[in-house]
Amino acid sequence: CRAMRTPASMIVGLVMCPCGLLLTLTGTLAPAWRQVSGIPDQPSDLVLEQGIWEVCSERQSSHARSCGQVDELGYFQQVPVRVAQGMMPTALALALLALVAAALGVRCWRQEPRRPLAGAAGLVLLLAGLLSLVPTSWYTHELWALPAPHGSTLVASYSLVLSYLGSCLHIVGGLALALSLYHCCPER
């Protein structure tokens, strides 16, 4: 038997999975899905960073940062935030499972990759990407409707962008790995 090279689609999927996992993990844990600035009756350099787990305040002039701020406006009770709190960790767990399955399926050190396992890992990774894309998209849609001090300036922050990028990498990587299922079908 001659050794078969690992298909490019499997390599793409295997590279995109941990990259997407790292971006999604950072986006999920970092407290900066939304930035609130220009808050009336507060110092002009005060910025609130709201994530899905906590709120931090920072004085930009001194870089003094304080996390664990009290949620006086009911931000964490809002449905898009609650949905993100449930779906983002689920997406991370699925992506981790897909990474393990993809590594076992691709197995570059074997003569033949396990195409069904790699393809199934791709489908799980695709699902993980969709599970993280839904809350980030919904949060972005509701960004200006979520509670904030009246008259303040609201902008999307880096955690939201990282979550989007991680979702996209999971989807592309999942589709690339799912192509392995095509080669499992017998030729007609």
TrEMBL record:
Give the principal location in a single coarse category.
other
Cross-referenced InterPro entries, in alphabetical order? Claudin, PMP22/EMP/MP20/Claudin
Molecular functions (GO terms): structural molecule activity
Q: Where are the transmembrane segments?
A: 86-105, 117-138, 158-182
Signal peptide positions on this chain:
1-38
* Superkingdom classification of source: Eukaryota
**Would you tell me the Gene Ontology cellular component terms?**
bicellular tight junction; plasma membrane
User: What is the membrane topology listed in the Swiss-Prot or TrEMBL record?
Assistant: Multi-pass membrane protein
Pfam families membership: PMP22_Claudin
Regarding protein family, the annotation reads: Belongs to the claudin family.
Matching PANTHER family, A to Z? CLAUDIN
**What is this protein identified as?**
CLD23 protein
Q: Which organism is it from?
A: Eudromia elegans (Elegant crested-tinamou)
Q: Which gene encodes it?
A: Cldn23
